[in-house]
Amino acid sequence: MVQKLDDDARTALLTRFRDWTHDPTRDAITRRFTFDDFAQAFGFMTSVAIIAEKMDHHPEWSNVYNRVDILLTTHDADGLSERDAKLAEAIERLL
Ligand code: HBI
Question: Could you name the domain of life of the organism this protein comes from (predicted)?
Answer without folding.
Answer: Bacteria
